Every structure is written in structure tokens, then in C-alpha cells.
Amino acid sequence: MGLSTHVLDTMHGTPAAGMQVALYTTEGEAATLVKQFVLNQDGRNPDGLLLDNSNLKRGTYRLVFDVSGYFRARGVTLPEPNFLGKVSLDFGIAHANQHYHVPLLVSPWSYSTYRGS
Q1: In which domain, by residue range, is 31 found?
Q2: N or C end of the chain: which has fewer CB within 10 A?
Q3: How many CB atoms lie within 10 A of CB 95?
């Protein structure tokens, strides 16, 4: 168990392979970088869990997804300024012994997320 993410590109109907993502811990307005990574061919962290249960702590976190960089790399022509740049998701971990999965469904113009399993 632990913390994981998965990104699906709803414009192309594929995993968002190559998207850059950063994970932070947060405390109020302060954010501390935990790790940065590039999504693999399945749209997931190539190292598996972002944090396993021994490193996942109760508290608040932020995932930052480079949406515009990803779509530009895919050859999508975006307006300037583009509608979505980096999507930041702030979320809380109440039970560090449970699995928290934070998926992102994204296009250049919209996104959605939820607590997955």
C-alpha cells in the first residue's frame, strides 16, 4: 500500500507517457519537494509507489503535473497563454496505513481526479 498516481490523456485516449510530475509535502503555504519523475508508458511512476506505507505520513501533499509541457511534446498546438499549464492537486492523507491512489484524467482544456483504489 502507500501513495500512487496514474495519468490518462483523454484527448488521445492513451496513458500520459512522458509527462513530468512532482510530489511535495505541504504545511500551510510551504511546500517541500519529495521527488520528481517522468511517467512511464503506462502513465505511472516508473519506480512504482510514490511513497510506500513506511514513508507515507499523515498530512497534506501536492502533486504537480506538467500538462502543457506534455501536450506540447505530443505536438498539440496550444494557444498562448495555454488554458492549463501545470495542474496542482492538493490532498490530505488521514490514514497512512491505507492506500491512496490519485489518478488524473486530462486534456489541454480539462481535468478530473478522485481518490482511487
Answers
A1: 2-113
A2: C
A3: 9
pLDDT at residue 117 in the model: 84
Backbone angle region of 46, left / alpha / beta, with phi > 0 → left and psi within -120 to 50 → alpha: alpha
d(CA 104, CA 6): 6
Instruction: Write the burial class of residue 13 (CB in 10 Å: 0-12 exposed, 13-18 middle, 19+ buried).
Output: exposed
- Beta strand 2-9 with 100-106 is parallel
Chain segment 10-57, per-residue pLDDT in tens? 999 999 999 999 999 999 999 999 999 999 999 999 999 999 999 999
CATH number at residue 74: 2.60.40.180
**Owner of C-alpha cell 503555504:** 29
**Alpha carbons 90 and 24: distance in angstroms, whole number:** 9
Number of domains into which the chain is organized:
1
